[in-house]
Amino acid sequence: MALVTGGADGVGLATALRFRKAGIAVAIADIDQGKAQARVDEGAADFAVRCDVSEEASVKAAIAALDERFGRLDAVVNNAGVGSAHKPTLEQEAAEFTRVLEVHLRGTFLMSRETIPLMLRSGGGAIVNISSIAGVVGLPRRNAYGAAKAGISQMTKSMACEFASRGIRVNAVAPGFIATALVTRLRDEGFVDFSRLFSRTPMGRLGEPAEIAEVIHFLCSPAASFVTGAVLSVDGGWSAFGDAGPAYDAQTPE
Ligand SMILES: NC(=O)c1ccc[n+]([C@@H]2O[C@H](COP(=O)([O-])OP(=O)(O)OC[C@H]3O[C@@H](n4cnc5c(N)ncnc54)[C@H](O)[C@@H]3O)[C@@H](O)[C@H]2O)c1
Question: Is Oxidoreductase among this UniProt entry's keywords (predicted)?
Answer without folding.
Answer: yes
